[in-house]
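Teaching assistant here, posting this on the class forum so everyone can see the example we discussed in section. The complex has two components, and the goal was to see what a joint structure prediction looks like when all of them are supplied at once.
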Amino acid sequence: MSAAIPELKQFDEAELDRVFTGLEAEVAAQARTLTGGESVETFRLEWLGRKQGRLGQLSAAWLKSAPVEAKRSLGVRFNRLKAQIESLLTENVEAGGTGDPAQVLDVSLPGSAPRIGAEHPLVKTMAEVVGVFQRMGYSVGLGPEVETDFYNFEALNFPPNHPARDTQDTLVIADQEQKPLRERLLMRTHTSPVQIRSMLEQAPPLRLVIPGKVHRNDAADATHSPVFHQVEGLCVDTRITFSDLKGTLDHAMKALFGSAVKTRFFPSFFPFTEPSADVQISCIFCGGKGCRKCKHSGWIELLGCGMVDPAVFEAVNQRREQMGREPVYDTRKISGFAFGMGVDRIAMMKYGISDIGLLYSGDIRFLEQFS
Amino acid sequence: MNILTHWLRSYLPGLRVDDRQLAEDLTLRGIAVEGEFAASCGGALYEMDITTNRVDAMNHYGVAREAAAIYGLRLEPLALTAPLVESRPGTGFPVRIEAEDLCGRFTARVIRGVKIGASSGVIAEYFAALGQKQILAPVDVTNFAWMAMGHPTHVFDLDKVEGGIVVRRARAGERLRLLDGSEKTLTGDDLVVADEVKALALAGVMGGWDSRVTEETKNILVEAAWFDPAAIRSSSRRHGLHTDASHRFERGADFNAAPLANHLVTRLVVEQSGGEVEGPLVDVQVQAMAARTAERPAIRLELSEVRRMLGQTAGGQATVGEASEEGITEEIVARYLTALGCVLTRRGEGEYGVKLPSWRLDLEREIDLIEEVARVYGYNRFANTLPVFEGAVRELPHAGQEAAVRQTLRALGYTEAISSTFVSAEEAEAFRSAALAGGVEGAVAMGNPLSAEAGMLRPSLAPGMATMLAHNLHRDVSEARLFELGTVFAGSTVEVSERMGLALGATGPARTSASLYNPEDALFYEVKGAIEALLAKFEGAQPAASVRFDATGLPGWIEPGRGARVWFHGEQIGVFGELSAAQLQARKLRQPCVVASVDAQRLLACPLRQPVIAELSRFQAVERDFSFVFPDAVTWAAIDAALRGVAAQGPSPAREAAELRSLRPVEIFRDVRGKAVPLGSYSLLLRVVFQSMERTLAEQEIALWTEWVVAQLKGLGGVQRA
């Protein structure tokens, strides 16, 4: 195994440089051929082996014959060569050069983890919206999904012939024809009845955020589902104004969609609010420049709102008196605003969902994208 | 409805803004321009979307009135610049209103000697731009007047009218052929415009065939009237006729527009078809109707109310003189309401009497006027303010529990899903459970179900869960873990009881690998584990004795012997198991599905467990395995009870139960051939951990414990394996 000792003609610096450069090159070349395991050990033995190691042989041969003044210089060069060999050995060992190949991990295999369930996009969106209003001092209110005509329509100032009362829009419970209109049971068509229920139970001031499921007799298509979700809000107190409504919703939209979002209010019509407004936010995708998602308008319509119609307060007062409670919603002293938004629409926009039906399908492939 | 800006501008000579700006300004005032296109007559064609309460604005003059109010412009009078010349003397056409409760106003005028041809001039030009079909000039004129001012009018062939006009209720069974060619049989509730002999037209809905204007018509009678909204609505519904005229009359037409519309039509007919106007305009009015519409008493408006409702306006960007941080001023109120046609009379400091315009029947109350001020002023010119609040925020009583349930189930691998609220009658019957519905029996039927499969309100979330699992399996997704938290319904159509339900669903290979279970049983135990983990979040689930599983009394939707009822604090809180063969077959499923139904209402009412930390032992734990063969009749519950229940009476009275720290089955083996383990028996590998709080257990102490455990297990009929 041991190779010949290279000839060292004299001990001057130039000759030492030539010989050691040659040795270093040989070490480097050998190291490049190493294939791990045994070859690394062979390499170590050849150079650093206690008995047959070439380094030992060279130092024995040269150090002995070297003149005193050259010994120091020779020693420095031996140390440098030894350090080079050791560092090459370390590199090869760390690269997995040694060890049992059967125990070597294929780190490119996928890791394993227990599967964690995903949050439903509607539940998540609803919680986000509710959270924004909770931080603004709103308490959460809930109400039943099966309502009476009184809470769903009458108290909310829907006149008896309003189109929304038509059976085409409202899913009704069977066998209601014998009951007086206001007691007939139906699936609530909006979360607004909870406004009435809350005002019957509580005196102002009132700040409520009301998430919930609602139903309409709509044919299902990509953007319509007979089942959908809303978040309703109600704020009633003395001195609540239209500018408060604007400020509250502007703040909430910024909290939900980012501080760069702008809001825009349009006149609209709802039986239970006056003045009524539709609210648009500047497109969250293009920032208002216009894109496909906002139909190149720069704006996205997101919610309906308005000042609570005095007729609603009057209906509440009337019912409160029937219940033996104070008619505390004095329309000359108390005012308020209400707002409502479709959770499905927000979730669909936010996550790019093109078919509302996916939200109610239980399809794992769809839902697990939210984990 | 479509609007031509060219036409619009003819009423607003002072309008300087371009069509794009006009569209935006109108839209921001609720007169929404949804689309804007180039019009052949010049200018733009607007596609409008106007809320149903604003029928007055669904025409060119109505939109022009809005623009005039927004920009403070003068509005031209309605195309009446050329005065009508009564070239033929006359006394006016005889008109009699018999049904005074249904017809409030009727105007009539005669034109003689017309020559009927096609329309020309501005009518032809605008009709082309709007894509409106031309018929005959006098008919086009009535359509033009409709689009100009939104008041329906009608032209009769005067020579078909026998005697004077009578507005009366139809006679029951009276027949009338209408302009669309249909023949209607009328009832006593229909209102007709008739002559002395026969009905001529279905009032406010559609003209009659026999009295229509044709190319041969020589003499014309122009009608413009006002009919009662309710009467027209019922007539229109009864005969299935929804026309422009009925649309307007049933929402309330302008009482004072009738004579104007008649003037407009008469003048344009003469312009288009020649002829001479005969005699004065006949205008018969019912005073009681006028009082309900055009002559409504003035309503009170207080500036303080306007300001109380609307709050602060934004300073700066508003027109000079209007801007005010303090809100709407008296000047703004007066200016905009006047521009909209209201007549304001100052009654005192900051108080007005407001007489309402005849065309705005939607305005009735002070709040309606406040809305009008805000609307025309511009919603976006109000400030964004935040109200002060002096109340407390209240959490829902069970918000924490609900969040814990969701979080726990997600951590266990269950994805939340939402299914339909409705189930079929068969499902309602198979899945309803009074025990899980607070003791309420029955299910609730829908009156107008979405489909036959959705005829009932869901009494449980289990059928919806089965449907969702099937949805996945049918789409080649063979593994799913789902949960749903939602409302379930019980009771009857008289009284509906709602409560919170919870369902878990699992299908596909078990995710936990344990040698304890048969592969085909592992999914059941995985769901059981999820239920145990869920209950463990609540107070009282420790000691384990308060949670109990029992295999009796299973509902039919669970395969016999493959499910369990869940008891918590002595009350049934849920049931779960593999879907029965019939349920699988009904859903065309071949792979087992485990479904759980939990009465979440009861669960969420329990307080969440408040952890109380046990002291930790500093001493060595010793693990010992025991391998026994037991007869099948010996359940784990019996073994667990024997060891844990009486652990306090261990090998020596001095030993504390705490020394037997844990106890769990590690492996269960059954040999179907009965060789390694006899048939009717199973082998159990049991792992027990001993640990003391006080000291390291000595060898002899462990030996005593081991002997004791062996004795207990033998006492149960167990045979120790070598």
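For the discussion questions: Chain A touches chain B through 75 residues (CB under 8 Å). Chain A has a mean pLDDT of 90. Think about how each of these relates to the inputs above.
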